[in-house]
Write a structure and sequence with these properties.
Helix content is 42%, strand content 19%. With 120 residues, it is of the alpha/beta class. It starts with a strand and ends with a strand.
Length: 120
């Protein structure tokens, strides 16, 4: 599966990441953890970024992206707990999370130039 981090969901304002991720179908379908969705909804209430969450929330619903329920409140912890080394991939641009993922031999998909993904 391709686990999509919260910061990557915010990129839905500029690019359809779900279309881009089709190139990496060898990892399975894209999924979102419930804690990432909670983080996105929490951001919706903040004045500076709230207006940028409407499009991602709508696209997640419209494209019927699989939602995995987690007990973790923090998305990074859930991702590190559930991602399987050398099987799954995580779509994120979070530098701290990327370092942890690489340490655990979990593949990372990063968005370059806000246009395309690269596998690390």
């Amino acid at each position: 599966m391709i686990i999509i981090d919260t910061n990557m969901l915010m990129e839905l304002n500029t690019i359809d990441i779900f279309e881009q991720l089709k190139e990496f179908s060898q990892f399975g379908e894209p999924v979102i953890f419930s804690c990432s969705l909670r983080e996105l909804r929490k951001l919706k209430t903040k004045q500076r970024v709230g207006k940028y969450t409407a499009i991602p929330l709508r696209l997640i619903k419209d494209k019927k992206i699989k939602l995995i329920k987690t007990k973790n409140l923090y998305a990074d912890y859930a991702i590190l707990k559930f991602a399987k080394p050398e099987i799954d991939a995580v779509a994120t641009n979070d530098k701290k999370l990327i370092k942890e993922l690489k340490t655990n031999k979990i593949r990372v998909l990063r968005l370059r130039q806000r246009r395309y993904f690269v596998l690390e």
